[in-house]
Amino acid sequence: MAATQTARERARAELTREIKDEARRQLAEVGALGLSLRAVARELGMVSSALYRYFASREQLLTALIIDAYDAVGEAAEAAGDPKASPLERWEAIWRAVRAWAKAHPHEYALIYGSPIPGYQAPQDTITPAGRVAFALVAVLRDADLRVETEVGEMPVELLDQLDAVTQILKVNLGPETGSRLIMAWTQLFGMINFELFGQYVGSVDPSDAFFAHGTRQMAEFTGIKMTG
């Protein structure tokens, strides 16, 4: 009985992968808004009712794809952050890895960092995977001897409360100044990638390799990482 159940579980896992692979192919063709369970089922030679046993709705399938994408870019960031390297080298490696993943998987990247999907609201399940890149950057800052050269001045109470909440989520006390700079740098990372992937650098810093490398170092220094490595 156990062997039979294991075989069924393997078959279900394999078909689940096929469904998601086909859905990703459709993302590249029609985007998230055009993703259809019926179309996925048709391409796999399944009846729609059979596919609904794996994903009860289009939203559930989208959520699975979103979690997979967050996990994939998070894994890329984590793998790049070699703890034996200097903080600066780790920071740069993570930024390069995130950018490389985005360029290799533009449609999956657009699913998580592009325009919101009308009518779709991400569930709580996506929060932890969505934070993996940030956690990888936090690990670098935690191990670095940070040296912030300039202060931004007094912060509003509302911002201090927000940063305190973020600190509790990250489970590391970076202090409000470093915490705010980390969020700015995290935003800059994906902002630069978005501009590159969505053609906003055409006519200016295109190709953007040199600009991205420069921005990576600027954000490292901004968060307090020593440029000597």
Question: What does this entry look like structurally?
Answer:
The chain is mainly α and 229 residues long. It has 11 helices and no strands. It has helices at residues 2-34, 37-43, 48-51, 58-80, 87-104, 106-113, 127-130, 132-143, 157-170, 175-197, 209-223. Helix 1 (2-34) crosses helix 4 (58-80), helix 4 (58-80) runs antiparallel to helix 5 and helix 9 (157-170) packs across helix 10. The longest helix is centred in the N-terminal third of the chain and has 33 residues, at 2-34.
Topology overview:
Elements: H1 2-34, H2 37-43, H3 48-51, H4 58-80, H5 87-104, H6 106-113, H7 127-130, H8 132-143, H9 157-170, H10 175-197, H11 209-223
Helix pairs in contact: 1-2, 1-4, 1-6, 4-5, 4-6, 4-8, 5-6, 5-8, 5-10, 5-11, 9-10, 10-11
Task: Characterize this entry briefly.
This protein is mainly alpha-helical. The chain is 70% helix and 0% strand.
Keyword list:
single chain; 229 residues; mainly alpha; 70% helix
- Low-confidence regions: none
Please give the largest β-sheet: none
CA-based gyration radius:
21 Å
Secondary-structure element series: HHHHHHHHHHH
The helix content, as a percent range, equals over 70%
Average residue-wise pLDDT: 91
DSSP helix count?
Answer: 11
Choose one word for the global shape: elongated
Strand share of the residues? Answer: under 5%
Strand element count: 0
Determine the N-to-C terminus distance: 57 Å
Briefly note the structural class of the backbone.
mainly alpha
